[in-house]
Amino acid sequence: MFCGLWGKNMVQSAWGSRETQFFYSLTPDKVLDAVEHSLGLRCTGKSMAHASMENRVYEIELEVERDPSAPRSLDHLVIAKFYRPGRWSKEQILEEHAYLKALDSEEIPVVAPKALIDGETLHQLADSGIYYAIFPKVAGRSPQEISLAEIEQIGRLLGRMHNVGAQIKAEHRIRLTPEVYLKENFQYLIRENLIPDRLRKPYAELVDRLAVVAEERFKGVGTLLI
């Protein structure tokens, strides 16, 4: 599995920080300027925001010559991903990119980030410090039903992904453990006084019970990182 140890200069919170406020300054003109600067190409001005739980993701149209023999080509479209400030450090994002490139080199169907104008895969906005990457647009669809044969195929694919991840040293990713995703989040709720007084004791007891079960289940499992 994609694993490693804690390192330096990384974000240790699973949910980021108050720096997320910088997302409010991410206006359409800044998005288009960033893409043009990083690719050395002009945008048509057409962009569309995509749904994303924690980052900002935009589909951008580029001013490039279209091949009339390939009307369905998506080469004129890219996906720009702006990472939530305070959520990931530069080192963590680059480890994500390295993993995607390793999967791609093993012919596992993933979408790896594009090499930017300087050969890197990650750039940063000067005013807000927001990191961003640019990906090719790849079409896909979500089937309504998955057959048993397709479930087995997905299982084999996940196995291959785990095998590639096990060979990669990731020193900066956040550990996926009961301590991080259960106890630390509970302490945050307590610190911010988000649980009513009458519910604190039963809530704490429930968290303790869940932690016992989770820690038992995690025994013998290799390091899981996000």
Task: Walk me through what this model shows.
- The chain folds into 2 domains: 18-90 and 99-136, Phosphorylase Kinase, domain 1, CATH 3.30.200; 175-226.
- It has 5 helices and 5 strands; from the N terminus they run αβββαββααα.
- It has helices at 28-39, 90-105, 148-166, 178-191, 197-218, and strands at residues 43-50, 56-62, 77-82, 123-124, 131-136.
- It has a 5-stranded antiparallel beta sheet, with helices on one face.
- It is globular and about 65 Å long.
- It starts with 27 loop residues before the first helix and ends in an 8-residue tail after the last helix.
Chain-wise SSE layout:
Blueprint: H1 28-39, E1 43-50, E2 56-62, E3 77-82, H2 90-105, E4 123-124, E5 131-136, H3 148-166, H4 178-191, H5 197-218
Antiparallel strand pairs: 1-2, 2-3, 3-5, 4-5
Helix pairs in contact: 4-5
Poorly predicted parts: 1-12
Structural class of the secondary structure composition? alpha+beta
Mean pLDDT: 86
- Range of helix content: 25-40%
β-strand amount: 5-15%
In total, the number of strands is 5
Summary?
37% of the residues lie in helices and 13% in strands. It is built from 5 helices and 5 strands; from the N terminus they run αβββαββααα.
